[in-house]
Amino acid sequence: MDAEIQSKPRRLSWPAGLGGRSEKTVAQLLIAPGQLLMVFIVLFPAAVAIYLAFTDFQPTSGYQWFDAYKGWHWFGNYWEALKSGGVFWTGGGFWMAVFRTVIVTVLGVGVELTLGFALALLFLKTFPGRSVLTVVFLLPMMVVPAVTGFIFYMLFQTQGPVNGALTFFLHDVLHATGHIHVPWLSDPNIALFAIILADIWQWTPLMFLILLSGLVSLPEDQLNAARILGARFSDQFRYLVLPMMWPIILIAVIIRAIETFKIFDSAWLLTTGGPGDATTTISVFLYRQTIAETTRWGFGSAVAILVLIMVSLLALRAIRPIEAAQEESIGELVGADVEAESVSLEQAIEAEARL
Amino acid sequence: MSTRGLKPAGRAIAILVIGAFFLFPLYWLVTMSFKPQDEWSPVGGKIYWLPGKWTVGNFTQALGISTPNTQFFSAAPVDASKPIVHSLLAAGGGTLLALLVGVFAAYGIARFRAGGKLLPFQILQLRMFPPIVVIIPLLIMFTYLHLVDTYWGLILVYGAVTFPFVVWLMRSFFAEVPREISEAAIVDGCTQWGAFFKAILPQVRGGLAATALFVFILNWSDFLIALVLTADKVVTAPVFLNSLQSAGAGQEYGPQAALGLVLVLPPAIFGLLIQRYLVRGLTFGAIKR
Amino acid sequence: MEKQDPRPERTIPEEPAQTGRTFGRAAFLKSAGAAGAGIAFGGVAGSAKAWTRSSRNAHLARNRLASGNIGGPTGFAGAERYQYGADTAAGRAILGLKQLTNNGKKPITLSWRIWNGAVGQLTVPFPKGAPAVAALLEKETGVKVKFIQDTPNNNGQKNLQTLSTRDGGLNILQTQITDNGDFAEGKMLRNLDEFVAKYRPDWADPKWGYAGGATTVALMNKYNGSVYSVSFDGDYQVWVYRVDLFDNAQNQKDFKAKYGYELNDFPKTWKEHDDAAAFFTKPDGSLYGSGDLKNPFWGYVNWMMRYVTAAAPNQHYFGPAAKPLVNSRAGITATKEHVASLAWTYPDTLSKSWPEQYAAMGAGQLAMASMFSNATKFITKGSPLDKGFGSKLRTALAPGRMVGGKLVRRSVIYFNAQFAVNAFSNSKLHEAAYLVLQWAGSGQIFSWMAGNPAGYFDPHGQSQLNDPLVRASYKPYASDELKVIIPNTAPPIAGVRGANEYTQALDTNLQKALTKQASPESAMAATAAAWEKITNRYGRAKQAAAISAGLAAWPTGYKYHL
């Protein structure tokens, strides 16, 4: 058996197929509780949802859920969700909720990435107080999301501190404008950005951490060589850092995008999906349709299935980089494609020298 | 890497600005928790940047040590001591369940590739969809099993929802343990289980602790699941926090801020303790520093 | 879906958490004239008194039922007011219960789900010397009640659970008028018509019944023409205003100069109201003309008051065949006015609710506002409504409109706490459960309960509004005004399946109009379209039938003074 052990000391995974029935049994026993839990949390709810999605079941329907076939509705619920139109940006309905969720995800993750990268670059070199400041910059991530929602609810009141601070700077100090009374939470065009801002505040630290781990693990030799050759910072960044960091950036973006897509706590606590429907993301939409506003469990199940399908399709693609990364070390992650990039960097340096 | 373009002064300014952005909400939370009632949201819009009159009343009220000044609407309970206990028990129980199930599954995947290629993918997918999607069928199921508004119901769901994290984290920790250790134990006469418990597990003690704390933070921070699956008997602290802001109680900023501060302490402390592993946990084990 | 508690936890300020001690009430009890000679009410426990003959007789009289009465509380002066003979609704209920329990030999236990903020009215003795309501019931009939407490926030969820699991564990449930359509169709509420016919409750009695008579009975207790629940509350909206502002001579002079007509004691029409609100609103924010709520879940009632007064005797929400009527000129006008009234209230009003409004009124910041009838109950020492303006407040019926020469003034009610018999529970106990509700909701017993500060159910009947304890608590002027308001109260969207969904659709579109996302026309059109979808889903014929049966709940009179 020893002879079969692979001899790549740096590989972090263990090879399979070592034979022996006892090992197979052990393996199966080990994962059995997990599989049971997954059946409970995924399979059964999915089955119930699929069934109910074909009915117009409500708890006030007068019969119990397994009798929901009495209100058989074929694809009526799906049709209603899919053909829901709505005023752009603030309208109700399924598609607008999806649209708003996508906006929040794209803008939120985009800003988090940029800001996080900037922070990571700032923190790359040691400076006095760096470890203390790192702790400080991590704090927002540690705040319970429900508390974050509450804090920003306080902050964004029309007579609240954000407007107060803005008034102080723009009016009292700079005399540039009048008093600031931006209705962050009650203006349907602005409210969504309030939620995005709360999300950015909470999760930029995570991006910062991830990107910092990546930056710290970049191979020094390539970068030193480039520096000695006189490459500008922007060129180093574009031709060396970015390509090497690409797998990490990809993973960070995917992970944050997945989490942001699910956003509920701050959207609900800040505006309960309002004013009207202006901040109803997909989770808030489902919550309102099934619990908060009406109890249309049949319709809600259909929407839930639609969301499941949508997310699964995306997940199939998105998971691959993550799964691959789970097998590798961070050094391997950032070490990719170094050859090609260093060539383009040399070309860039030469091009500049010729000028 | 050369950051020649950035002078130390420039860096300081940038850090100051970004730092102010990060700290401002926290500063507001802290100061609000010490403000007396008439400074929470004064009519007329006056903003108290610092409490005019520092008071610990919000904390004593939120923790049930004192009762609020009787006014008509503040008869709404602000005593959060029971919800905090509920949160502790539910989060703790959920963490235990997740650990129990997840550690074994992680070892199976890491050591024996149990479940083949499909199982890790399925587990990963678990985290992909919004929890609200499963909540309704879960609510129906729980209604009939009489698990709504019970500890067991919450623990079950918390465990199921966070066990994927345990799997990823522990898998990466197990993967770092050299095979030779379990091999040696088996050669010494242990069964597979013996090898696991006596040889492997002690090696990942640190990782196990970090995982436990990480998962506890996740369960402690949950809002939606408790919102739907509890009513009044097992209300957890975040849901209770939300209820302090109802049409009835009005906006009880002070006790809410105090409770919020208390709520934030465990994740903040634990999070800083396991700082090294945060990235690993939150990236599903993909990025290991 | 049940909203978060309307008038949440409204306990009297100086009562330390519901101990039932009437110490704080001593002052007003005495002033109410309820104290007999030499008999102290509160806080003088165990005082050694010399028994004079007269005091002993008085003491004995207090502990005995007045002649002719078969039941009711004893033990305090004035108890005869709440006692009843055999030929009253309460008496019939007691006799019926005695038969069912074989005069107490076969005791019955009923479980009753109730809000924790209200249960005190049934379990805490009041006034001093009296038994608790539930204790009296057990003593007279052998029926024991077990209260299962919950909060207004999750009572709705609990009801849904009971409904979806057909749980028969509880005998009496707490519901509200906007839910009864759904719950009745969901077969959770026991149809009470046969018991009503047999035992003849006093709900429409001119002396002991609801202040609006049969109309109020239809509004509260009926769905689709049948009785499904019993009213135990009076969630009425009263317009509270600062009489010192309206009576001020300088204000009257300035108003007349500006608008060309006299400033009335309180606006009679919406035009007068809007003018007065604009007149009183000061740009520096020290005074706002009209602080009626506009926020989600609560503001729509103020729109409804503007809407239902657009026709005589009423502008309905639905026409024949359940056709929505809100996208008419009446609806659009009401929406325009509702949106315009944002100018006369404090900023951020869309995210502020009752506590802020009550506090603002108490601080003298509002000239008028539409509030719950308990507002005057809270004008007591130490409460936010007593910052110097409490004595300056008065109440009135909502303004209205001139329609074809008639002045139509209507208030609207949100949802009222009701109790119903759980149809899934043991059918042998349905009759007993109903009788308990008839008894406790009767004029005599409910009047006795309404004065109890340990709970927050409000009065809704003539006898309560005349009761000295209630009048002292809610203030005499407000009690009299309620006699006018209650008969002129129009229903919200209730008495129909999906009432909450219709209301939600209206509310969401009103919010859009208020935040300028939609014009009044498109908001009303969207509401009507949403309503049609809901109606089609539930079945137009059934909805139309229920709406038609619900017409009996609408007020018909034009009497605005006592």
* Largest sheet geometry of chain B: none
Query: What oligomeric assembly is this protein in?
Result: heterotrimer
CATH domain fold name of the largest domain in chain B: MetI-like fold
Rg of chain C is 24 Å
Total strand segments of chain B: 0
The amount of beta strand of chain C, in percent, is 5-15%
> What is the β-strand count of chain C?
15
Provide the CATH topology of the largest domain in chain C.
Answer: D-Maltodextrin-Binding Protein, domain 2
CATH class category name of the largest domain in chain C = Alpha Beta
CATH architecture of the largest domain in chain C: 3-Layer(aba) Sandwich
The 3D shape of chain B can be described as globular
The portion of residues forming beta strands of chain B comes to: under 5%
The number of helical runs of chain C is: 23
pLDDT averaged residue by residue of chain C: 87
- Measured as a percent range, the helix fraction of chain B is 55-70%
Number of helices of chain B: 13
User: Biggest interface and its residues per chain?
Assistant: A-B, 122 and 111 residues
Structural domain tally of chain B: 2
Return the average pLDDT of chain B rounded to an integer.
85
Largest beta sheet: strand ordering of chain C? 8-9-7-10
Task: Tell me the name of the CATH homologous superfamily of the largest domain in chain C.
Answer: Periplasmic binding protein-like II
Can you put this structure into words, describing what you see?
- The complex is a heterotrimer of chains A (355), B (289) and C (562).
- With 355 residues, chain A is mainly alpha-helical.
- Chain A has 14 helices and no strands.
- The longest helix of chain A is centred in the N-terminal third of the chain and has 33 residues.
- The N terminus of chain A is likely disordered.
- Chain B has 289 residues and is an all-alpha fold.
- In chain B, 66% of the residues lie in helices and 0% in strands.
- In chain B, helix 1 crosses helix 12, helix 3 runs parallel beside helix 6 and helix 7 packs across helix 8.
- Chain B starts with 7 loop residues before the first helix and ends in a 7-residue tail after the last helix.
- In chain B, 58% of the residues are buried.
- Chain C folds into 2 domains: 190 residues, Periplasmic binding protein-like II (D-Maltodextrin-Binding Protein, domain 2, 3-Layer(aba) Sandwich), CATH 3.40.190.10; 239 residues, D-Maltodextrin-Binding Protein, domain 2, CATH 3.40.190.
- The longest helix of chain C has 19 residues.
- The two termini of chain C are 37 Å apart.
- The chains are: A mainly alpha (355), B mainly alpha (289), C alpha/beta (562).
- At the A-C interface, loops of A face helix 6, helix 7 and helix 21 of C.
